[in-house]
Specification:
single chain, 126 residues, mainly alpha, 3 helical TM bundles of succinate and fumarate reductases, 79% helix
Length: 126
């Protein structure tokens, strides 16, 4: 028996994940992150219903820059999950499985999510 210290193949140290695998993993992670963001939304709704003092506290928390940054990232995650979900619907219908098409649609999902995030924040701030 040889005593090679090489990792078994495929191994994450030597094997680069395809772009489509990364977008698929990101889609699953974005679903989990959306659940966390939904808890923030529930907190805001409950604070609104609890009265002016609770709402003032929630408003001050949501106005802080770290929470604003989290909300910006959550907005991107929301639009990423939406756009990638539409992409998966096309896949479910049997379209877009060619390697180049799958990579282009993944890039379009990222660009679309960024554009929709910018548009949503622009509209919210104007």
């Amino acid at each position: 028996m040889s005593s090679d210290n090489r990792p078994l193949s495929p191994h994450l140290q030597v094997y680069r994940l395809p772009f489509t695998a990364l977008t698929s993993i990101s889609h699953r992670i974005s679903g989990v992150l959306l659940a966390g963001g939904a808890l923030m939304l529930v907190y805001w709704v409950v604070a609104t219903a609890a009265g002016p003092t609770s709402y003032a506290l929630a408003s001050s928390i949501f106005a802080s820059w770290p929470v604003q940054l989290l909300m910006l990232l959550w907005t991107f995650v929301l639009f990423y999950h939406l756009c990638n979900g539409i992409r998966h619907l096309f896949w479910d219908a049997g379209y877009g499985f060619e390697l180049q098409t799958a990579q282009r649609s993944g890039q379009a999902v990222i660009v679309g999510a960024a554009l929709l995030t910018g548009l949503a924040w622009f509209i919210a701030l104007v």
